[in-house]
Amino acid sequence: MTRVVVVGDLMTDAVARARYPLARASDTPAIVTMHGGGSGANVASWLAVEGSDVAFIGRRGADITGRNRDMELMGYGVDARLVMDPERPTGTCVVLVTHKGERTMLSDPGANAALSPEDLPRDLFTSGTHLHLSGYTLINEGSREAGQTALEFARRAGMSISIDSSSSAPLERTGAESFLEWTHGAKLLFANADQAKVLTGRDDPAAAAKVLTAWFPQVVIKMNTDGALWYTNNRAEPVRVPAESVDRVVDGTGAGDAFAAGFLSPWLTGKQPSDALAAGCSLAAKAIAHLGARPRL
Question: What domains are there in the chain, each with its CATH number?
Answer without folding.
Answer: 4-10+39-88+109-288 (3.40.1190.20)
